[in-house]
Design a protein that fits this description.
Largest sheet: 5 strands, mixed
Strand order of the largest sheet: 2-3-4-1-5
Order of helices and strands: EEEEHEH
Radius of gyration: 16 Å
Number of strands: 5
Distance between the termini: 31 Å
Length: 155
């Protein structure tokens, strides 16, 4: 299925793929609302990917990070046929990297955070990243970019 691109809002408020002026392999975005039990979610189909602007994806308008209904967003992405997510944004302390550095995490440490949407045994999984998907993203980035490569996973 298509890849879901989760992005933070851009200065124009439009999805990232719509503001690049054709500098990416994406098509012109086709906007659509997907109905979920929690309400509609706006998605942008750009060909090989579905873009979700997490702060502006609902008709209610801008939502700060702590008020975003992630379950609603994930439900809409699944209904649109997405089977993986590439989240683009910056969160937390990035003081050790200059502006423009691309970072692809290989580990997650958030002892107070363990979100789940399951009420059965699946809800007791330790959060983490898919190593194969991370490698695919880094390989694609390396093939398409001359910018600095994300740090390699320490083993």
């Amino acid at each position: 299925g298509p890849i879901a691109l989760g992005i933070d809002d851009t200065p124009t408020g439009l999805p990232l793929a719509a503001t690049t002026g054709g500098a990416t392999p994406f098509e012109a975005p086709v906007s659509m609302y997907v109905s979920t039990s929690a309400g509609p979610v706006e998605l942008h189909d750009v060909g090989p990917a579905i873009v979700l602007n997490r702060h502006l994806a609902t008709p209610e308008g801008f939502r700060p990070a702590h008020r975003i209904d992630h379950h609603r967003h994930l439900t809409a992405l699944c209904q649109a046929g997405c089977d993986r997510v590439l989240a683009i944004g910056s969160v937390g302390s990035l003081r050790q990297w200059p502006v423009g550095t691309v970072v692809a995490p290989f580990d997650l440490y958030a002892p107070q955070v363990n979100p789940t949407y399951f009420t059965d045994a699946r809800g007791h999984r330790v959060p983490g990243f898919d190593g194969g998907w991370r490698d695919t993203v880094i390989e694609a980035w390396d093939a398409a970019s001359t910018t600095r490569r994300p740090p390699a996973a320490s083993t």
